[in-house]
Amino acid sequence: MKILKERIRRDGAVKPGNVLKVDMFLNHQIDVELLNEIGKEFKRLFADKKITKILTIEASGIAIASIAAQYFKVPVVFAKKAQSINLDGDSYTAKIQSYTHKKIYDVIVSKKYISENDRVLIIDDFLANGCALLGLLDIVKSAGASVEGIGIVIEKGFQAGGKQIRDMGFDLKSLAIVESMNAETGEIVFSDED
Ligand code: 5GP
After folding, report:
1. Distance from C-alpha of 113 to C-alpha of 82, rounded to nearest angstrom
2. Of 125, 186, 193, nearest to 163 (Cα)?
3. Whose CA is nearest to atom 10 of ligand 1?
4. Are the CB atoms for 143 and 122 separated by under 8 Å?
């Protein structure tokens, strides 16, 4: 997606540890017009799918998923990061290793909001090693629902998550795939596949 790549080049910052900071328009300050274009693009890419629900994870996924949901006209459910899990059987849970904070945390989704009849589109801001997505996939599986597709805004193609999840057979589409980036020079190279 051309305008997204241009924006990443202009306002993104490469940090040590393979972290791309996009706080200027996606992760802290939010450019709603850009998110609107992102939402339309997800709709175009998954136009042939009968989505009933969009699933994302707090916090950064919520704004992206919510704006996209207006084009799909379906509700958004976000997995909540839980301090402690209440094992009352009312929630699906998964463990996720945080890429940016390096710790493992639990996420929960109430059983009320995903059922076996749902056809889910998963949306998130970044894909790195795939832990966040694997957790969300686990939750959809626990619910007995189907995953119709996965939409990612920025995939770091040099990390393992994308290949692993495509090899599992999921329809994963990323709007910008970073092939390489350099914290010293700030250079960002995109793949042509997105
Ligand atoms: P994964 O679970 O695929 O290793 O990492 C995905 C999650 O970690 C995303 O939900 C995102 O919040 C965070 N993340 C991973 N890499 C980056 C990055 O380079 N920049 C930012 N801002 N977040 C990242």
Report:
1. 17
2. 193
3. 126
4. no
At 20-29, the pLDDT tens digits run 999 999 999 9
Task: Give residue 33 CA to ligand 1 midpoint distance, Å.
Answer: 22
CA distance 2 to 30: 18
Inter-CA distances, 185 with 10, 19, 118, 176, Å: 14, 14, 45, 20
Helix (H) or strand (E) holding 22: none
Q: List, as one string, the DSSP characters of 142-169.
A: HHT-EEEEEEEEEEETTSSHHHHHHHTT
Look at the pTM and tell me if it is higher than 0.70: yes
Ligand 1 neighbour 164 (Cβ under 6 A): no
Distance, CA 174 to ligand 1 centroid (Å)? 13
pLDDT of res. 29 = 98
Task: Show the beta-strand stretches assigned E in 31-187.
Answer: 53-57, 76-82, 91-97, 104-110, 119-127, 146-156, 172-181
Token pair in block for residue 121: 């589109």
